[in-house]
Design goal:
The protein has two domains: 2-68; 115-243, Immunoglobulin-like. It is 38% helix and 25% strand. It contains three helices and nine strands. It has helices at 2-69, 72-93, 240-243, and strands at residues 115-121, 128-135, 141-151, 159-160, 170-172, 177-183, 195-205, 217-227, 232-233. The radius of gyration is 57 Å and the shape is globular.
Amino acid sequence: MRNRNFRRAARTTALGTVALLAALSLTACQEDGQAAADTSSSATTSPSEQPSDSAKAPADKGKGDNKGTSGPGAESGSSSGSGSGSTDAEPAAKKPKDTGDNSGPVTLACNGGNSKVTLTAVTRPVNHMLLTVTNTGSKACNAYYYPFLRFGEAQAVPKTFEESKPQAVVTLAPGESAYAGIMTASADGSGTGGYSTKDVTVSFQGREGSGSSGPSSDVPLTKAVFVDSTLAVTYWQTSLDDALMY
């Protein structure tokens, strides 16, 4: 009986020990599980935090780039662009002043309003006169083609020596002169319808050559000039010698 009780007590003690060990093991497992959970949570949180840090890096880099564009290199480019724009705009906005230098192509026609006209007799050739036009204006002008002449009450202009046509338009700077030779009558008396007059009107042609352009000039003479049907005039010339060749 004593032995049976002893074995029962030993079994009870063993069962209690087993239960204690099981409880300790369960507690250990729970602690290990909690530690693993904490570790897993930490591990999960760490990767999520990494992208946050890395996400800030491009933002910081972008800020760095922006700083770069406002640095010395960007200022140089901005200054160059601004300077270039200013340089290009100023010549377009400013117009050259009329200083009388007459730069650029000349299209203004010489006429009675900007020129002075004189008519003088010459000894050679016979029955010839020299017509001179002088630019009295502040700008260059062109003496286009040949002058239109009217002696007295004549209704038609004289014929022209076509062989006297120059290779280029005669351009007169302020103060310069051009010349035209006039044959008033034939030397051999072959002309007809002759008459004498002291009144001569000179008209000028424009660039188109379709008629007179601008004011004409009246050239009064102190001595009457005899003209007949052979009356003729040259194109405007740059020298009086060329004008009196015909």
